[in-house]
Amino acid sequence: MSDALEPQPDTEPIKDPGLPEHLYRPQDVDESQARRTERQISGMFIVAALLLVGFCFGYVLIDDDQTFLGWSAQNFTFGMTLGGALLLMGVGIIQWAKKLMGDQEMVEMRHPSASSEEDRVAVMKDINDGINESGFGRRPMIRNSLLGAMGALGLPTLFLLRDLGPLPFGQSTTVWKKGMRLVNDVTGTPMKPGDLEVGQLVNGEPAIVYEVDDEGHPVLHGTELLQVKSKAAIIVVRMRPEDITPSKGRENWGIDGILCYSKICTHVGCPISLWEQQTHHLLCPCHQSTFDLADNGKVIFGPAHRPLPQLPLGLDDEGYIIAMSDFPEIVGPSFPEFARDQKKLDDKS
Ligand code: FES
């Protein structure tokens, strides 16, 4: 230990300026001042201990429903006592370190961090001895079979990955088919054109989601129900027919201004329903992709690359709105196998 660094040899490019002169604190030179500081710090710690005892009394003595200045009296007491105690302990410890603990500057020169040459030679010798004694190099059959077994340890991981969910292959269709009714996704009631006013948007599902069998049990349940609901979710909107500009082949996909689109964003699959009825725009809340529902679900803003898939609509004999087919495009986000699956759909139609 020294007050300043040792003078450096002249070969150093920059001279070490050393440490500034050590300044003694009042507590270092005046014993009565040191004792006063000691009493102050101890006082803080004692008050902190009393506050912690007060915390316990507060817990026992104050009712849950008592208030103080509009706050819960119990919470107020807890906050003041525990917070005050921690504050005093922290201040006391800092004062102790700054005013009473030794503050002599110490210098410890750096040493090379590498092991000595002898240690390194000894370690390499031990490793080589271990390899030779184990026969790892002499018995290639054992060595190679062990390496093979260790490599095979990765195989179970692949199978565990499979548990993350269904593979994305063959996901190109939904349960929608010709004649399936559109139902309100809250009430489960089939929709008629008169149920929608111009400017209105309704969230829907295929009727099969609410169907029951002869014994009154739901036709779909569990994981299958969830998968069907998530893939086939739709939005149904009504606009003035003159505002709609259907592309070629879609002229009869709507009913008197009522159009139906997938509710699943084609970017990464968030459900969409932020509808701006004046502009006919539908905004995805996740990354702000915006689709023009009057213009075939075209993307007009944001990271989505594909228009929102549209479901062709018709009416059944009882006047309920039905699908005229499945979605002609894949719903949801575009996976790498999208192009292949889309080709399959195109070939089918
Ligand atoms: S999921 Fe809709 S914009 Fe990203």
Automatic annotation (TrEMBL):
Name the domain of life: Bacteria
Q: Which cofactor does it need?
A: [2Fe-2S] cluster
Which Pfam families does the record associate with it?
QcrA_N, Rieske
Q: Where in the cell is it found?
A: Cell membrane
Kindly indicate whether the keyword Membrane belongs to this entry.
yes
Region labeled Disordered — which residues? 1-35
GO CC, alphabetical = plasma membrane
Renumbered to this chain, the Basic and acidic residues biased-composition regions fall at 12-35
Q: Which CDD domains match?
A: Rieske
The molecular function terms of the Gene Ontology recorded here are: 2 iron, 2 sulfur cluster binding; metal ion binding; monooxygenase activity; oxidoreductase activity, acting on paired donors, with incorporation or reduction of molecular oxygen
Q: Which residues form a coiled coil?
A: none
Task: Give membrane topology per the record.
Answer: Multi-pass membrane protein
Which controlled-vocabulary keywords does the entry list? 2Fe-2S, Cell membrane, Disulfide bond, Electron transport, Iron, Iron-sulfur, Membrane, Metal-binding, Oxidoreductase, Respiratory chain, Transmembrane, Transmembrane helix, Transport
Query: Which N-terminal residues, if any, form the signal peptide?
Result: none
| SUPFAM superfamilies given in the database record | ISP domain
Question: Which PROSITE patterns does its entry note?
Answer: RIESKE
Which segments cross the bilayer?
41-62, 74-97
Chief place of localization: membrane
Q: What does this protein do?
A: Iron-sulfur subunit of the cytochrome bc1 complex, an essential component of the respiratory electron transport chain required for ATP synthesis. The bc1 complex catalyzes the oxidation of menaquinol and the reduction of cytochrome c in the respiratory chain. The bc1 complex operates through a Q-cycle mechanism that couples electron transfer to generation of the proton gradient that drives ATP synthesis.
Q: What does the sequence similarity comment in the record state about its family?
A: Belongs to the Rieske iron-sulfur protein family.
Indicate what this protein is called per its UniProt record: Cytochrome bc1 complex Rieske iron-sulfur subunit
Organism field: Aeromicrobium chenweiae
